[in-house]
């Protein structure tokens, strides 16, 4: 169908950030179009592919407001405690470790009835299935996928030309196309990148013994090795997601290993607390870099999620930042339209940038510092951080403060 259609907001990119924003705006009755270059099958029920996100409480609320949390087809798994160890491969992990138990800081104020969990592990396919199904159900959301779009922006509004389809006239275009964002590039918005020379190897394992909601972050000289507890699914009863960071050359070598050798190497890093392990689904490898856009907006255009920023996955915060972006942006757009104001006005976009860019920069700096501090085997640094870890673990008020800070950061 061709011709011109009027909508309020056009979102380019239907990944977890763009897709969730479209659901949130659609739930609020805002005329929204969403375009993705890939197909978004509404009835997809894919096999478990081994990828998952750690989602904190604040972002969980974004998913609830978008009508997605209760529609996740695979149950999220709570993260109830986190153990942090500092080790060296080939030697047993340092005996010094930090143990954060969410039950130690659980409060009566628990609006999500979360039991005070640090966060939840959500399978990537679960989020994708819920988003795709909801996008097709919402009366105020139009989906164009797979489709290519050309965007023309002017002071008064924007036109989005869908190849072989209609032209959409809107007042705000959201670039949610991920790190390579063509719209960001077309707008001439510069980015600062920080390559790490590391890759993240991501996969899932089935294990013999239950994890009891426990996550492990084991700092090794090449980068962190994390085990994150997943809920049981059709593939196995005891499952964890693994994010294994290695230097790029070593990561390529690890990815080329046959499955037996790969699992033996993973087990060497994980330790034996979960019993025997086996691979579930595929292994994925992502080159790691940090990135921040110098501006989050241009005329009638705003950046959200990975189009605006990227952080080291050491703290599993990338998507959580994107969800915080769309929480702020969604409120601003819904508020403006409710008052009969322009959702693409420069003042509104400036407010969005002022709320989100400093927070994202802070997380970029914190995850970068953590990676530099721990992905290092320089003996004095190693001693200092082990003493620091030991001090935090042995001084209860200090540890409690750390946990409250951690939960505060996660729950913001
Ligand atoms: C190893 C690793 C582990 C991670 N673990 C976690 C974690 O535990 N927790 C967490 O919060 N985050 C995690 N992250 C980060 C998280 O994966 C990203 O932040 C998240 O995927 C960003 O979502 P997005 O929707 O912004 O972008 P994307 O997921 O990149 O989605 C972009 C979408 O835009 C579409 N698109 C692209 N170009 C175009 C175009 N020109 N036109 C139309 N559509 C287009 C794509 O098809 C896609 O659907 C991890 C990242 C890595 C690398």
SSE diagram, text form:
Blueprint lengths: L3 E3 L2 E4 L3 H12 L4 E4 L16 E4 L1 H9 L11 E3 L1 E6 L10 E5 H4 L13 E5 H14 L3 E4 L4 E6 L2 E6 L4 E4 L1 E4 L6 H5 L4 E17 L6 E7 L2 E8 L8 E9 H9 L2 H12 L6 E17 L3 E2 L2 E3 L5 E2 L7 H21 L7 H29 L4 H16 L1 H16 L1
Parallel strand pairs: 1-12, 2-3, 2-13, 3-9, 6-15, 13-20
Antiparallel strand pairs: 4-8, 5-8, 6-7, 10-11, 11-12, 14-17, 14-18, 15-16, 16-17, 18-21, 19-20
The site of flavin-adenine dinucleotide (FAD) has 30 residues, from helix 1, strand 4, strand 14 and helix 8.
Structure description:
Helix content is 36%, strand content 30%. The protein is α/β, with parallel strands linked by helices and 412 residues long. It has a domain of 190 residues: FAD/NAD(P)-binding domain (3-Layer(bba) Sandwich), CATH 3.50.50.60. The strands form four sheets. The chain has an eight-stranded mixed β-sheet with strand order 7-6-15-16-17-14-18-21. α1 packs parallel to α8 and α10 crosses α11. The C terminus is likely disordered. Flavin-adenine dinucleotide binds next to α1, β4, β14 and α8.
């Amino acid at each position: 169908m061709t011709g011109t259609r009027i909508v309020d907001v056009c979102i380019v990119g239907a990944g977890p950030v763009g897709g969730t924003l479209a659901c949130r705006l659609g739930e609020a009755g805002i005329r929204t179009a969403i375009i993705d270059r890939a197909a978004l099958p509404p009835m997809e029920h894919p096999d478990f592919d081994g990828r998952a996100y750690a989602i904190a409480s604040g972002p969980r609320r974004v998913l609830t407001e978008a009508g997605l949390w209760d529609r996740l087809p695979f149950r999220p798994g709570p993260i109830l405690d986190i153990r942090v160890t500092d080790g060296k491969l080939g030697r047993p992990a340092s005996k010094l470790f930090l143990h954060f138990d969410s039950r130690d800081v659980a409060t009566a104020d628990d609006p999500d009835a979360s039991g005070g969990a640090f966060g939840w592990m959500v399978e990537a396919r679960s989020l994708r299935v819920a988003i795709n199904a909801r996008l097709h159900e919402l009366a105020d959301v139009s989906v164009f996928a797979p489709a290519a779009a050309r965007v023309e922006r002017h002071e008064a509004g924007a036109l989005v030309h869908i190849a072989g389809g209609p032209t959409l006239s809107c007042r705000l275009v959201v670039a949610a196309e991920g790190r390579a964002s063509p719209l960001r590039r077309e707008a001439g918005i510069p980015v600062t990148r920080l390559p790490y020379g590391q890759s993240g190897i991501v996969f899932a394992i089935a294990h013999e013994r239950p994890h009891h909601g426990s996550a492990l972050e084991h700092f090794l000289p090449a980068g962190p090795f994390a085990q994150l507890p997943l809920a049981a699914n059709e593939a196995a009863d005891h499952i964890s997601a693994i994010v294994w960071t290695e230097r790029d050359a070593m990561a390529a070598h690890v990815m080329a290993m046959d499955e037996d050798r790969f699992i033996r190497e993973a087990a060497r890093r994980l330790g034996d607390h979960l019993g025997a392990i086996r691979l579930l689904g595929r292994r994925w490898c992502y080159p790691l870099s940090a990135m921040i856009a110098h501006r989050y907006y241009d005329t009638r255009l705003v950046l959200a999620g990975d189009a605006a920023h990227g952080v080291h996955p050491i703290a599993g915060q990338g998507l959580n930042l994107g969800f915080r972006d769309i929480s702020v942006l969604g409120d601003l757009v819904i508020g403006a339209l409710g008052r009969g104001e322009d959702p693409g006005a420069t003042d509104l976009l400036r407010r969005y940038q002022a709320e989100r860019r400093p927070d994202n920069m802070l997380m970029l700096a914190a995850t970068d510092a953590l990676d530099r501090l721990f992905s290092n085997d320089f003996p004095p640094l190693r001693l200092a951080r082990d003493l620091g870890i030991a001090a935090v673990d042995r001084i209860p008020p200090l540890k409690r403060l750390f946990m409250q800070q951690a939960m505060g950061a996660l729950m913001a």
